[in-house]
Amino acid sequence: MAARREEDAAVYLEKHKLIELMDNLTSMLFFYRPEKPREFLIEKLEQLKLSQQSGVIGPNLFDDSNLDVVFRIMDPDNKQYISFVQYKQALTMMGIKDINECPDGVNEDRISHETFKIEATQGLERCSATYVQL
């Protein structure tokens, strides 16, 4: 009986993408650290509702300037490229789970700033797409 309830709960969570939603909301709380977290969450949920109604991808934790900062952290010598390992670490840290294992530059172990931003943006869009599916 308990196993059936757990299975039903898991199906429910997966169907409604609730784990992804909670992960995204929690990440936003930690990133922005608002003075009034409950009001912040209400605002984000209202944005999500609008995203769902309009079909537009929901709020994203990282914008272009944030991606530039992440890349610079991984490239302190300003070589304008990072290794594949650094690329995977950065995307994982940003909460992207389905990472492209063959981005441009992987064979040379040189992932350019441009490639990193493209891959990060696409990965974040896939993460945010869960908002539209609520």
From TrEMBL:
GO terms for molecular function: calcium ion binding. InterPro entries: DD_EFCAB10, EF-hand-dom_pair, EF_EFCAB10_C, EF_hand_dom, EFC10. It comes from the Eukaryota. PROSITE patterns: EF_HAND_2. Pfam families: EF_EFCAB10_C (PF24548). Residues 62-97 form the EF-hand domain. This is EF-hand domain-containing protein. It comes from Astatotilapia calliptera.
